[in-house]
TrEMBL record:
The keyword DNA-binding does not apply. PROSITE patterns: TPR. InterPro entries: NPG1-like, TPR-like_helical_dom_sf, TPR_rpt. This is Protein NPGR2. The keyword Cytoplasm does not apply. PANTHER family: OS10G0471400 PROTEIN (PTHR44102:SF1), PROTEIN NPG1 (PTHR44102). It holds the Pfam family TPR_8. SMART domains: TPR (SM00028). Keywords: TPR repeat. TPR repeats lie at residues 614-647. Residues 42-68 are annotated as: Disordered.
Length: 725
């Protein structure tokens, strides 16, 4: 190409005439040297030759793009010229001027040409043949126009027109995807900026839809970015996967399952937001394990949340265990694993992990871990001493620090002391531990800054167990007020306290009010308590109707959730136990009405749910006892104790049947009753039967029998329809 030709003014006139008329500028009419193109672009984009302007130079990439288009196609058409001028205005920061230039490009007209050019160019590369028809546009021209569409989207974004920006950006991806439905080949557009622009557009589109308030479109664009082969670099692909996972977890929008064009048989297809987010985060974790990306701590944080809310705590523990040492700090690793196993119900595994961590002197600040260890120990009768030690250590570390955490520590101390009192061998030790437990819980209530429902619940529960019913009622009402009636266990505790005060009608009204504020699937425990209140009032037919309604709700619920979302495993087990215990309660009601056949049907239903149940064997024994078959009843009670040696009702029933069978077995009867009272000191039936044994024994103290009867009478007057705890 000749370096000599028109003057600067003449070349500028030609270009502006081209832009205004849409005509093509021929190679032989323009000198496309670096110098002449630079001068032309410089003048056309509004620069002047005033003093101080000589030092300002435009981006030389415009020159290179123009020269490439000229070499390949022999002309620089109207759209390409506008793309160059728009880019210059955008680079100068003149967003509105750039948008005005870009809007002059007829995107609808050039899109089919771009599709055809991309498709033919890739076909030529695959066949390595020039026999096919020449593409209507050069790849540099395609790259230039796609960049113009992208910069138009960026300009619209800067002006706050997010919906229009998203639509403009979407044109790029739809054009390339329809031209190359199988994805971009490896060497696609290696010699121009097209691939770089595509990467930017793929990353930008979901963000634009989010800004436009279109979450479903954002989800579809994320999937388009990840499911189509765009030849994304690792950094961009990783960023998109992470951002998509975060959006799925926290946006509050329900995503429909992805519609995959093709997939391997048996491959996993996510059914909801959580599953799709977990899949993405697991892919990111896999990339890190393969050393393709650097470690990002937020990945495990988001994965922890996703797996926790979906009930897959064991899977989370497995993923944490797979991480190489040093990736997570030792304290964080052990704490996370302990929380996972505690959530899965494997408390001893969790406690051993915490012991391992807390015994290491290199971890001085482990207050939260101490509180978790104390909580686990407080729920295990064999670890109550250890639980109180952990709570005391936490309190010593919290002196002068967070009062709310100190309140939690005092609450856990009270819970551990209360558990310890129930297993104390002597009355003195038991009373002392009960006093200390109540004192710790009252301290927790005084020191809490924000009202803690958990503290109030345990304070009410401890007062109720110590038969301080007025105080228990006061705290139970406070609990309901703070929780605004949102907790089922708060309603049930209040109803049990009222039943202990023999206010059965009021207790039933409380249950009815609770059912009005509770979802249908969460009414199981409420209905069971209501049935027991009706039994206490002698309304056995009403109780049968309530139990029947409860069983119908449970069965419908089970059918619905087999088809729907998966339940958390511990909740599923809870509802299975509730259904089984309801069959036992109904069998006992039929037994009391001498309806043997109905009772047997109920027990057979229970056996289908779980064959190894101490409660079922106990109900079977009561049925035999009511029929007068004492030996068969004794065998059933024995099987119940084989399943659960600490089953108090079976211990008492065994003692009762033995006493009826023979006066020679009084020492064995006393032994069973003593074991029952060691486990449950507040059982009035155990005290009453022990009084009968003392009365029948030769040489036994009448005072001892009287004390047993007095204890039984006092406890019976304050006994709830079902145990407080």
């Amino acid at each position: 190409m000749n370096k000599r030709g028109f003057s600067i003014r003449g070349r500028l006139r030609k270009m502006m005439k081209c832009i205004c008329s849409g005509e093509q500028l021929r190679v032989d009419e323009i000198i496309p040297s670096s110098e002449s193109l630079a001068t032309r672009d410089y003048s056309a984009s509004g620069y002047s030759s005033r003093a101080g302007d000589n030092e300002r130079k435009p981006d030389t990439s415009n020159i290179e793009e123009a020269e490439s288009s000229l070499r390949e196609s022999g002309f620089l058409n109207y759209e390409e010229a506008r793309a160059l001028l728009g880019r210059l205005e955008y680079q100068k920061g003149n967003i509105e001027a750039a948008l005005h230039v870009f809007e002059g490009i007829d995107i609808a007209a050039v899109t089919p040409k771009m599709k055809l050019s991309i498709a033919r160019r890739c076909e030529l590369h695959r066949r390595r043949s020039q026999s096919e028809a020449i593409p209507p546009m050069s790849m540099h021209a395609v790259s230039l126009l796609i960049e113009a569409i992208f910069l138009k989207a960026k300009s619209l974004q800067a002006l706050g027109r997010f919906g229009e920006a998203a639509q403009s950006c979407k044109v790029i991806l739809d054009t390339v995807e329809s031209a190359l439905p199988e994805g971009l080949p490896e060497n696609f557009a290696a010699d121009c900026k097209l691939l770089e622009t595509l990467n930017k557009a793929v990353e930008l589109l979901p963000e634009l839809w989010k800004l436009a308030g279109s979450p479903q479109e954002a989800i579809l664009s994320y999937r388009q970015a990840l499911l189509h082969n765009w030849n994304l670099d690792m950094e961009t692909a990783t960023k998109i996967e992470k951002e998509f996972a975060i959006f799925l977890l926290y946006s509050g929008s329900d995503a429909s399952p992805p519609n995959l064009r093709s997939q391997m048989e048996g491959s996993f297809v996510p059914r909801n937001n959580i599953e799709e987010a977990i899949l993405l985060l697991m892919i990111l974790l896999r990339k890190f394990v393969l050393k393709r990306i650097a470690w990002d701590p937020s990945i495990i944080d988001h994965l922890s949340f996703a797996l926790s809310v979906s009930g897959e705590l064991r899977t989370l523990a497995h993923q944490v265990e797979l991480l190489l040492p040093g990736i997570m700090e030792r304290k964080e690793r052990f704490s996370t694993l302990a929380l996972c196993y505690h959530g899965e119900g494997e408390d001893m595994v969790a406690l051993n992990l915490l012991r391992n961590l807390l015994n290491n002197r290199d971890n001085p600040d482990c207050t939260l871990e101490l509180l978790l260890a104390s909580k686990i120990c407080g729920e295990n009768v064999d670890c109550t001493d250890e639980g109180t030690d952990y709570a005391h250590k936490a309190l010593s570390k919290l002196q002068g620090r967070c009062k709310q955490m100190a309140s939690v520590a005092n609450c856990l101390l009270g819970v551990s002391l209360s558990a310890k009192s129930r297993s104390s061998p002597s009355d003195y030790d038991r009373i002392l531990r009960q006093y200390e437990a109540l004192e710790a819980l009252e301290t927790a209530e005084r020191t809490m800054i924000d009202r803690d429902p958990n503290v109030l619940f345990h304070l009410s529960l401890e007062n109720a167990e110590q038969r301080k019913l007025d105080a228990a009622l006061h705290y139970a009402r406070q609990l309901l007020k703070i929780e605004a009636g949102s907790s089922v266990k708060g309603w049930i505790l209040l109803a049990r306290i009222l039943s202990a005060q023999k206010q059965f009608e009021d207790a039933e009204c409380v249950i009815n009010a609770a059912m009005d504020q509770t979802g249908k699937w969460d009414q199981g425990e409420l209905l069971r308590t209501k049935a027991k209140l009706q039994i206490a009032q002698g309304r056995l037919k009403n109780a049968i109707e309530t139990y029947t309604h409860l069983l119908a709700v449970l069965q419908v619920r089970n059918k619905n959730f087999r088809v729907g979302k998966q339940l958390l495993k511990n909740r599923a087990n809870h509802h299975r136990r509730l259904e089984m215990e309801t069959w036992h309660d109904l069998a006992n009601v039929y037994t009391s009405l001498s309806q043997w056949r109905d009772a047997e049907v109920c027990l057979s239903k229970s056996k289908a749910i779980g064959s190894h149940s101490a409660s079922r064997w106990h109900s079977t024994g009561l049925l035999y006892e009511a029929k007068g078959l004492h030996k068969e009843a004794l065998k059933s009670f024995g099987k119940a104790l084989d399943v659960e040696p600490s089953h108090v009702p079976s211990l008492i029933s065994t003692a009762t049947v033995l006493r009826k069978l023979s006066d020679q077995s009084l020492p064995a009867v006393r032994s069973f009753l003593t074991d029952a009272l060691r486990i449950d000191r507040t059982n009035p039936s155990a005290w009453y039967n022990l009084g009968l044994v003392c009365k029948a024994e030769m040489g036994a103290s009448a005072v001892e029998a009287t004390e047993c009867f007095e204890a039984a009478a006092f406890l019976q007057e304050t006994a709830p329809v079902e145990p407080f705890r």
